[in-house]
Design a protein that fits this description.
Order of helices and strands: HHEEHHEHEEEH
Helix content: 25-40%
Number of strands: 6
Largest sheet: 6 strands, antiparallel
Strand content: 25-35%
Strand order of the largest sheet: 2-1-6-5-4-3
Distance between the termini: 27 Å
Structural class: alpha+beta
Radius of gyration: 14 Å
Shape: globular
Number of helices: 6
Length: 138
């Protein structure tokens, strides 16, 4: 975890029980929990790299979702509400997995924004995770 993220990562990120990673307002990875490292096949060396270089996903139309100026970043910049999306995430083994992904924008250190908390979870986890994230984003 980067020094910048270590001081302010919300407690719910570690407690939510799904893969979570955070990128700073420039799009660089600053935090990954153990579940995210396992899902993405990423390591501590991934921190500081562009999120879209580490995370590979496609939307329901088969288009690349993780890219500079991704939809969640645009939503956050325009202050549109975040919501869960079905995405195909490519894991460390090269296999794609259908995950529900909710990207939660936060204001970070020194009032900077948007810091994007990515939460990826299975359909089986969706009711519990989305209940927590609904409260977080309310």
């Amino acid at each position: 975890m980067s020094e910048h993220a270590a001081d302010w990562v919300p407690g719910w990120v570690e407690a939510i029980g799904c893969a979570c990673w955070i990128c700073d307002p420039t799009g660089r990875l600053v935090f990954m929990n153990d579940e995210a490292e396992q899902l993405l096949g990423a390591t501590a060396e991934s921190l500081g790299k562009w999120c879209h270089e580490i995370v590979a996903s496609r939307d329901a139309d088969g288009e690349a979702f993780c890219r500079p100026g991704c939809p969640p970043w645009c939503d956050a910049m325009l202050e549109r509400p975040s919501h869960p999306r079905p995405l195909m995430l490519r894991g460390a083994d090269g296999q794609e997995r259908l995950c529900r992904t909710w990207v939660v924008p936060l204001t970070g250190p020194h009032n900077t924004r948007p810091w994007l908390v990515h939460c990826a979870y299975s359909q089986e986890q969706s009711q519990r995770v989305e209940s927590i994230l609904s409260q977080v984003t309310a």
